[in-house]
Design goal:
The complex is a heterodimer of chains A (486) and B (299).
Chain A lengths: L26 E2 L1 E3 L2 E3 L6 E6 L4 E7 L3 H19 L4 H17 L1 H12 L3 H22 L3 H4 L6 E2 L2 E5 L5 H14 L3 E5 L6 H12 L7 E3 L4 H8 L6 E5 L2 H10 L6 E5 L5 E4 L5 H13 L11 E5 L3 H13 L19 H16 L3 E4 L14 E4 L6 H4 L6 E7 L2 H9 L6 E5 L3 H10 L4 E4 L18 E2 L4 H5 L3 E2 L3
Helix pairs in contact in A: 1-8, 2-4, 3-4, 4-6, 10-11
Chain B lengths: L6 E2 L2 E2 L21 E5 L5 E6 L3 H20 L2 H16 L2 H10 L4 H21 L3 H5 L1 E2 L6 E9 L2 E5 L7 H12 L3 E5 L6 H11 L8 E4 L3 H10 L5 E5 L3 H11 L5 E5 L10 H4 L2 E9 L11
Parallel strand pairs in B: 7-8, 7-10, 8-9, 10-11
Antiparallel strand pairs in B: 1-2, 3-4, 5-6, 6-12
Classes of the chains: A alpha/beta (486), B alpha/beta (299).
């Protein structure tokens, strides 16, 4: 390859998405029993745009009393309406949500990017369409559950408490709410404290869809709000997506209770590139695997394993590609890597960068300018990392890739599986039998072969080992929201 | 043992020593401890090993070592091996019925449980090469990818067998696990342990690879925290747990996000493939489809 001198005349002009048609209220209350109500705590917290550090809105802080009120509303709705109407009617309500979301897709995408920092291209092309697809897919299941679970007489569970993270705020809300409703349950959902806006917008939309009061309730707040929901005695099931540490705490506090639980926790996915792979495509896959959504992805391909014979080529092409990633304004349609979601998360990522450097690993960061205001991290690659290093063991949840090389298949499988996590993995090779050897032996819930970070409502998602238990999506995901006999 | 006092024409009968079953061998507990099992007439039936934490840890090592090989066997092969267990068990009706009667069973109850146990094995032998078909799916994703989901074994499963039955409860605690390609460590019923050890002798002659099933005898309370907190155990099955135990188990199992399943002998459907699926993970695999006329490359 020729010398990669940067020719600035090729830079793209800014292409900002307009925010004119979007309304964000100054203040958002809790959505309980079909109405927006002020919190009993009388407290509100700020939600900011991580790309500008400007305040977007104030969000109600739900305390124990508010959570209790929401659970009571959900119980009442479950007892009086949602479990009484026919399954087909239930499905029609969920179809309405899907359609309304498609209609307002642009607005939701803009707010998602403003509040969370992810590139508008991503919220426009991935988060919002997939969220709508999740409602559409699950709507149709409502009256067909008996066919999915033969000899099991599927019935709803009751009131479901759901706690979601900040990396895919609307999409995670859809992953949680759609199957819960389709299976006949009512919901109390707690969004992450840095990204409440699209969940509250979704509450508006659910109200517009005419869902019976109390079927979906949204309580906003931080860890204490989540704790109140987990420990509420009248919640029949908890579904949590978030860190492994918090997942373990939830598991502990539900020990000995009859509350059902599914956990979708952290990951440290191996992305494995063999010498017979289509290298250019593999490099695209590596980039998509770790720099998608600023690396705030539980299934991110954060451990790269490259066969020794092609390591130099992969590193060279990867660095070239990294240098061409556009980091900056999430609202710009050319942006590849947006803002880090919060100051806290940026500090966490920087702590890992220091740890990697201190351990003596070679660090490469893309040579791109980042804005002065806001929270930014350049795409980062550590090479020659050891299996035992902190940066290859712990989930960083940022655009940081730790690379190792390997010589044999058995070696790379051992290294890939040698982690307490088991959420996802990637394999790049053009040899079919090798793909199946790898995909069979990798201990992970989702394996992408010659692709990475693909999601679909029909495709079950979830982890092995400390990445959690239970699946979301597909027919397997439904069982998490049903009581099954036999 | 009732034959303790009977003498054959040639002389006194040879007694069996009830040992543990770990990695295909029959060691005594490393702790050197035992507890006596007596029949209704207070006669000694056996001195049974009182297993220690170290025995359990050894059993986990054996189970982990055996797991990949057991999982890699074809479903047809696993099916035949479990059927073979049924064959080997059927031959020993006299032994098991006698052991159950020594433990307090009536003749009719013992015979019923024995034949139910053989039937249980035959039923699950048949599931080995079928549950994957029943519980797998090809998923019609919207992008240009081939996408499918299949169940896979969790890995190493520990189990507390029910204390209510001598033989059937023991089988229920591990047979679904091994049907599904897991390996197992079972703590036998504390009060009714002799059949479990005799069953281990059946397993040892049924082409079950060493380490696939490991059998301990001993005290639930003593071993509970070790079973539930071991970092290399993926699943933990507990039959007929007390509430206090379920709290302790749930808490320490969270350390490695262990999958914990509580069953009650009274209401857990016994002949159900869901007992296999309870110890499986669903793996979803994606691969691009080269779509000539479709929506472009799936890469």
């Amino acid at each position: 390859m020729a010398k990669t001198t940067k020719n600035t005349s090729w830079d793209l002009s800014p292409a900002p998405e307009s925010t004119g048609h979007v309304t964000i209220d100054k203040r958002y209350d809790l959505f309980i029993d079909g109405k927006f109500v002020p919190p009993a705590t009388k407290k509100y917290f700020k939600t900011i745009n991580p790309a500008t550090e400007e305040t977007l809105s104030e969000i109600a802080l739900a305390g124990e009393k508010d959570v209790d009120k929401a659970v009571k509303a959900a119980r009442k709705a479950y007892d009086t309406t949602w479990s009484k109407i026919s399954a087909a009617e239930r499905g029609k309500y969920i179809y309405r949500i899907a359609r309304l979301l498609q209609e307002r897709a642009r607005e939701f995408a803009v707010i998602e990017s403003l509040d969370g920092g992810k590139p508008i291209r991503e919220s426009r092309d991935v988060d919002v369409p997939l969220a709508a697809a999740h409602f559409f897919y699950h709507a149709g299941w409502a009256d067909k559950l008996d066919y999915a679970f033969a000899n099991s007489s599927p019935t709803s569970i009751g009131v479901v408490g759901q706690i979601i993270p900040w990396n895919f705020p609307l999409l995670m809300a859809a992953w949680k709410i759609a199957p819960a409703l389709a299976c006949g349950n009512t919901v109390v959902l707690k969004p992450a404290e840095t990204t409440s806006l699209t969940a509250l917008k979704l509450a508006e939309l659910i109200r517009d869809a005419g869902l019976p009061d109390g079927v979906v309730n949204i309580v906003t707040g931080a860890g204490d709000t989540g704790k109140a929901l987990v420990n509420h005695p009248d919640v029949n099931k908890i579904a949590f997506t978030g860190s492994t540490d918090v997942g373990k705490m939830i598991r502990r506090s539900l020990a000995g209770t009859s509350t059902r639980l599914t956990l979708e926790l952290g990951g440290k996915a191996a992305n494995i590139v063999f010498e017979d792979a289509a290298i250019d495509q593999a490099v695209e896959g590596i980039v998509n695997g770790i720099y998608f959504n600023q690396g705030h992805v539980c299934c991110a391909g954060s451990r790269l394993f490259v066969e020794e014979s092609v390591a130099d080529e992969v590193i060279r092409k990867l660095k070239h590609r990294m240098n061409n990633l556009i980091v900056g304004d999430p609202m710009d349609k050319n942006t590849d890597v947006g803002a880090i979601n919060s100051k806290d998360q940026l500090l966490t990522i920087e702590k890992y960068l220091k740890a990697g450097e201190k351990d003596g690993y070679e660090m490469f960061q893309s040579q791109v300018a980042v804005p002065k205001k806001g929270y930014w991290c350049r795409p980062t690659l550590f090479t020659n990392v050891s299996q035992s290093s902190i940066i290859s063991k712990e989930e960083i949840f940022g655009p940081v890739l730790a690379m190792q090389t390997f010589r044999t298949i058995d070696e790379v499988i051992d290294k890939a599986n040698n982690t307490p996590y088991g959420l996802s993995a990637g394999v790049w090779t053009d040899k079919g039998s090798k793909i199946f050897n790898l995909t069979t032996r990798l201990k992970a819930g989702v394996v992408w072969a010659n692709t990475f970070n693909k999601f679909d409502p029909t495709s079950p998602f979830g982890g092995y080992k400390e990445s959690g238990f239970g699946r979301e999506g597909g027919v397997h995901g439904l069982s998490a929201y049903l009581n099954l006999q036999g | 043992m009732a034959n303790k006092k009977t003498t054959s024409p040639e002389g006194i009968a040879v007694m069996k020593t009830y040992k543990l079953f770990i990695g295909g061998a029959f060691p005594r507990t490393e702790s050197g401890r035992f507890y006596p099992i007596r029949n209704g007439s207070d006669e000694l039936i056996a001195n049974v090993c009182l297993s220690s934490r170290k025995d359990f840890r050894n059993a986990v090592v054996a189970a982990r070592k055996a797991q990949a090989g057991w999982e890699a066997k074809s479903a047809y092969n696993r099916s035949q091996i479990i059927y073979r267990i049924a064959e080997m068990l059927q031959q020993r009706e006299e032994l098991f019925v006698k052991e159950m009667k020594d433990l307090g069973y009536t003749d009719i109850n013992a015979k019923e449980e024995f034949s139910a146990s053989v039937d249980y094995l035959v039923h699950f032998a048949g599931w080995c090469d079928k549950y994957v078909q029943v519980f797998s799916s090809v998923n019609p994703v919207a992008s240009s990818h081939f996408n499918f989901s299949v169940p896979e074994p969790m890995g190493v499963v520990a189990a507390f067998a029910s204390n209510k039955t001598a033989l059937l409860g023991f089988l229920e605690s591990f047979v679904p696990a091994i049907c599904g390609g897991n390996t197992a460590i079972v703590l036998a019923s504390e009060d009714l342990p002799t059949c479990a050890i005799s069953m281990a002798e059946v397993l040892a002659t049924s082409d079950v690879p060493g380490g696939t099933v490991n059998v301990l005898t001993g005290n639930r309370k003593e071993l509970m925290s070790h079973f539930s907190s071991h970092m290399d155990v993926n699943g933990f099955v507990i039959w007929d747990a007390e509430t206090a135990a379920s709290i302790e188990i749930g808490e320490s199992a969270s350390e490695n996000v262990k999958r914990v399943k509580f069953y009650e002998s009274e209401d857990s459907a016994v002949l159900s493939p869901h007992r296999i699926m309870d110890l499986q993970e669903i793996k979803t695999t994606w691969h691009p489809i080269e779509s000539i006329s479709g929506s472009g490359s799936g890469y």
